[in-house]
Amino acid sequence: MVTTVLEAAVNVPSVRRIVITSSCVTLIPFEWNMAPNSERLYSASDINSDPQKPYGSAMEAYWASKAYSRIATREFIEKKKPHFDFVHLLPSVVFGPDERISSNGSVDDLLKDNRAAVLAPALDGSTNSSFPFVGVPVHVADVARAHVDAVDSARIPGNTEYILSSDTPEGVVWDRDVAAVAKKYFPEEVESKLLPLEGTLPCIKWRLDGDATEKAFGWKFISFEKTMKELLKQYLKLKQNASQ
Fold first, then answer.
1. Per-residue pLDDT tens for 52-71?
2. H or E element: which one contains 9?
3. Beta bridge partners of 208
4. How many domains are there within the chain?
């Protein structure tokens, strides 16, 4: 897919840059999850250069596809030397409030994808993930902001790659840190069991280098604490709608 886009861009002289949404999963092989190196610091220069086949699950195939896409882009630019350049953005676990949901909407609309799993430690266990998450969060607004800023070639150099992740390098521990935010900002809801803190999200520690991104783009990532506070606030508002 990515090579199709790149080949098409060759025929459009006005294209100067292609910003590609990649993923932090391209930094490591899928097998890393079974024996993670939680002490090493990973940077955007790391890449899973040889994804293993066959794939044992859809998730494993997804990881490989992202790595192949990143490799293919690098090879295309190196061999074809087109008139445009690229910027790869590598987001980690993307979540945050969903501004598309109306204030009088349904909480079910919020409890989808990563949001359901990330909220799990604050809830009753019904949204627990069947697999662990790496402890590397990023606010969805920061991911959007990075894509817009990456278009500016006067600001961001071409043929570069950037990790999008907050709270680096140590990341978060989902159960501990979600509960801490809930207790700090919503103590009454915790006391009343609106936020029962009975769920869990197993965590794999993954140390990422986000400093290079913040220096290049000139802004700081929104903290996990603020991101989680915003998400819990939206959850409680939508939950209130259900009881009315």
1. 778 888 989 999 999 999 99
2. helix 2-10
3. 42
4. 1
**Hey, is 96 helix, strand or coil?**
coil
Q: Do 118 and 174 touch, CB atoms closer than 8 A?
A: yes
Q: Which two tokens stand for residue 211?
A: 């400093």
Q: Residue 60 contacts by C-beta under 8 Å, 6 or more apart in sequence? A: 30
Indicate whether 164 belongs to any domain: yes
**Which residues form the domain of 63?**
15-242
For residue range 137-196, what is the model confidence (pLDDT) as tens digits?
Answer: 999 999 999 999 999 999 999 999 999 999 999 999 999 999 999 999 999 999 999 999
Amino acid (1-letter code) at residue 97: P
pTM of the model: 0.95
> What φ, ψ does residue 185 adopt, rounded to 5°?
-105, -20
133: nearest Cα among 118, 120, 111: 118
